[in-house]
Amino acid sequence: MKKMHQSKNKPQFEAPKYTYRVEWSREDDVFLARCLELPSISAHGTTPEIALEEIIKAVRESLRWMTEEREEIPEPLGLKKFQGNLTLRTSPEKHRELAIKSAEQGLSINQYIQLKLN
User: Fold this and answer.
1) Same structural domain for residues 66 and 31?
2) CATH number for the domain including 8?
3) Which of 17, 32, 92, 98 could form a disulfide linkage to 76, CB 3.0–4.6 angstroms apart?
């Protein structure tokens, strides 16, 4: 994570700009909400909307605390610029298999993997 410059009282990024996931928990009988950029934070609610409201409040408070403590604040995924490069490590056997399958289709390994990802 790169260090973000923050003003004294306001976090660099606003809580609603982060990436959230809400899912039903059969075990807890509630909707659980998480922030992908801050995975240690979660919240719950009886509806997806309440769970989302609660996680946004928790993230907002965490960002305030992180700012006060001069902690690094992660950049929201939606604002982050990606280069499009992906490094993948695999076994020599899987590498060989990918090389054969891509050659059979007349593609480079990169083109073959991209085709499979789409």
Assistant:
1) yes
2) 3.30.160
3) 17
What φ, ψ does residue 12 adopt, rounded to 5°?
A: -60, -40
pLDDT attached to residue 57: 97
- pLDDT bin (cut points 50, 70, 90) of residue 3 is very low
For the chain, how many residues are written? 118
Is the same domain home to 48 and 95?
A: no
Q: What is the amino acid identity at position 33?
A: A
Q: Of 60, 36, 30, nearest to 48 (Cα)? A: 30
Instruction: Provide the residue range defining the domain that includes 65.
Output: 1-82
